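Bug #77: duplicate submission created two jobs. Keeping one. Sequence:
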Amino acid sequence: MKLTIALAALAVLGVLPALAQQGDGTEVSYPVNVFKPNKVQPTSDRLAQIKAPEGFTVKPFAAGLGNARIIAVAPDGTVYVSRREEGDVIMLRDADGDGRANKAPVVVATRTQTHGLAVHDGKLYIATVKEIFVGDILEDGTLGPLEMLVGDLPDAGQHPNRVLEFGPDGMIYYSAGSTCNACNESNPENATMLKINADGKSRTIFATGLRNTIGYDWNPETGELWGLDHGIDFLGDEVQPEELNKIELGKQYGWPHVHGAGDFNPQSTPVGGITKEQWRDQSTPMVIGYTAHTAPMQFKFYDETAFPAEYQGDAFATMRGSWNRNPASGYEIVRVHFENGEPTTIEPFVTGFLTDGGTTHIARPVGLAVAADGSLLMSDDANGVIYRVAYEGDDAGGDTAEAPPAKPMETQAAEGVGVPLALERDETATEGSLTIQSPTIDADGTIPQKHSEYADGVSPALSWSAVNGAVSYAIVMEDPDAKPITPFVHWVAWNIPGTVTELPEGLQEQPRLVEPEGMMQGRNSSGTHGYFGPKPPMGDPAHHYHFQVLALDKALELPATADRDDLLTAVEGHVIGKGELVGLYEQSVEPPK
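Kept job's structure:
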């Protein structure tokens, strides 16, 4: 099917809100293509058109698999494949080493909307839209009973295909795509990378502004996390490029307001009066872009010796192909070349799945994994084939790569941990003082459940005594009893006007507020902006929550991505008064998963 329509027509049809509704004078029109090459069968003639570099072969490993999506390979070579439409996970084995699965696939798990897979410490982890399940891998490759590890992950929308990977630090990194093409999400965990403890009991937002990062992996040389993010649709054939990002703790990657190297999305508007220029300044631009609308999927670094040495340390990614470009793009495996730990190029590696002059396709690549023999396995979710990409030249080899070092991820996680509370630090030194009160929290009294994340999660009303000469006030709320993040930062706020000495209950949880005007809220330890209520583990003795207010002789120039340590660096030498209110909270009732 081929269709060319204008962006204005999409707005009329309800696919996009009309640009005129912004009220900021924006008027942009793009030609938008909807082009879906027809699916055809992978006949021998069409398979012969698949192209790979000299010495490489591309042959079916298994066929007739249905909606084959993500691939994970166990240490013994057992191949697991998720099937979203069938709602299951199948197991395949190549017992005789001939490069083909020997038997019919065996269903080892069934869960609705199964998608992401990861093998770790003898267990298979399965991501659905809102849950993570785990089961022991038995000797025959089947699974023991599945246990729900997490059950309250953000709900789906436009991008429901959740994925997870284990980092070199032993933590789960889980990608939750956006619910929309380009919007301000109401759930802060959408369009993010989440970091989850292996037992599923706690999680934080690791990075934000990621529209839909399905493919990501750790560089075996540096231990750094890299991922390919899907670009925004409806901006024309060449915009937005697919983005290769180095994903780091606390960074924001532009979506939905900024894309690529810093270009603006004309349709969207940040909340709270933040300008697009400010959003761009606090976002991390892509490192390398690739052809728009190619739809990157699974992404893997190559650390084996079955390919020539020049491929070691490079990454490969599947590009499923888009409906939003003419001519069609994607339908390929690409190679991301790295030198000295940094990417230099993205180029086609295996092509030919797009056939008949680009009007048909025999495969839409999704899953990608390195098999036990060093070949690549690629799943096609259209015709249900897994292809094996192998090297048959005589110059394979190189040094076997070590596992990615854990230090980069551990170093990021250790920032701001094991430090004194804000009022005890040199940066807040002052002779001045103030007193804090709350109508719902007495000094050293119990914090009502409505202020906890187990219930309403609303911020408490606070008031404090005015300090002469105060230009602005700042708030830092910390829990020194939390583990392993000690102290856990629950709230970071600044630029509360000096004329304001009280805040109402239930402030908006967003970077900038319009009431009080100009109040900024930074990144807390959960990775969200604004107040994050008490959430101690069930059964812990009462934790102490320190609401700390600083009076400052200046307003601060900090981006919304700032955290507590950024704030304390900025206030040093400008604190003219400080005080705290301590409340206690414990959870005695087991919350639902």
